[in-house]
Automatic annotation (TrEMBL):
One of its GO terms (molecular function) is oxidoreductase activity. The chain crosses the membrane at residues 18-43, 55-75, 96-113, 133-151, 163-180, 195-213. Its cofactor is FAD. GO terms for cellular component: membrane. It is a multi-pass membrane protein. This is Oxidoreductase.
Amino acid sequence: MAPTTGQERRPGAGGSGVAVGGAAWFMLYLLVAVTPLMIAVLADPPPGRDLWTEISVGLGFVGLSMLGLQFAVVSRFSAVNAPFGLDAVLQYHREISYVAMAFVLAHPVIIFVRRPEMLEVLNVVEADWQARFGVLSVAALLALVATSVWRRPLRLRYEVWRVLHGILATVVVIAALLHIEQVGYYVDGPWKRTLWAVMSLAFVALLANVYLIQPLRIRRRPWRVTSVTPANGSAWTVELSPVGHDGIRFVPGQFAWLTFGRSPFAVREHPFSIASSAEEPGSVQFAISEAGDFTSRIGELEPGTRAYLDGPYGVFSYERQEGPRFVFVAGGIGIAPVLSMLRTLADRGDSRPCLLLLGNPSLEAAPYRQEVEELGDRLDLTVVHVLDDPPQGWEGETGFIDGDVLDRHLGEGFERARYFLCGPVPMTDAVQAALAERGVPTDHVNLELFELV
Ligand SMILES: Cc1cc2nc3c(=O)[nH]c(=O)nc-3n(C[C@H](O)[C@H](O)[C@H](O)COP(=O)(O)OP(=O)(O)OC[C@H]3O[C@@H](n4cnc5c(N)ncnc54)[C@H](O)[C@@H]3O)c2cc1C
């Protein structure tokens, strides 16, 4: 496979470049977000409209633009994700949607407050099409946010939610564009029309990219399951080999979205960290723990099953954070990206000291315990098991990984070490807080969360 095409830029490929890339993307985002507002400002004010109506229209335009940009934010564009990391980008996607919603809602709210007679447009049976499209767009937006915020209380399965999310998002944007088109004030005149047409086409192109182009790109690079083997702690090692291409270039610690046995257009794609060494890109291994309906059937996968892999993504890698020594803190299957980093360090003959704190209920439940201990022969690696349900006679660490455990094992010069935490949120929160209390700079601490939604 070509080393860079379609991939995120290598983490660690230059801190200032990354910062500049991030700032440039953010400026572009702001520019696109306010472009419709500029179109509106430059337009001749329609007759008989007061300033508040104009303000409300401007806010609505910015909100819509931000919503359209959400398709770019979630498009998994390598160049956009590289400076921030996909998880940070998705976090931004979640949080900025509240801001966009506030802008969009401000549009009808201001109009209704200033001109209560306009409330009539809510009667969609009798209202005209411009009002119907406006109401449809806002209703779809409210449903979109509600189903995302309350997905669990509403008992929406992830896959169902994801399809619904895509449909609602498309309805929000298309209905809003039709609403603007029907109102027509701001899209008259050749250059305003052209500008607006370009914006609308860009939104549609982003939609096509998410639902069509990316799956087609993934389809060109199929994989095959070569083995599925059980590991400790209800985990499975799934190995994939490339079919008709030369595999994937990744940095240790990154993850990919996996789809098995179906077309890449399937909605059942799940993110998993690559657990194998980056020095062996020809075949990749994933360490998958049984969690729900998809993962609990991983053990039933037959060798030979077709697979599709979208990635690599993520910035959780020691390559992004070179330091004199490394401290890895993993809980349960959080060992997966750490395993990839340790295997890569070993394959590269790296002699820097590594400390691995592993939190599990018991040694038997600790996934990849054996593999980790064997890596000690090839690395300057200290492994500390912290068991919350230890067997009788266990003399090691017990309970959860906390400040006291850190104090006993971090050793001299711990402030200069680089930290990589992956595991249950209470564990990563506690360790993060304890490290901050001990004066470890926050930019030395890297986090991978297995919860995206
Ligand atoms: C960056 C990242 C790396 C990960 N790496 C690993 C790994 O190496 N090994 C491992 O065992 N697990 C990993 N996970 C977690 C794994 O993706 C989920 O456990 C799995 O998708 C759950 O699917 P399920 O249907 O079996 O469980 P469910 O019970 O359906 O889901 C449990 C929870 O997982 C999340 N989830 C479910 N489906 C998806 C999906 N398609 N995409 C995103 N999140 C979803 C939801 O929050 C859901 O509530 C990773 C997650 C992320 C975000």
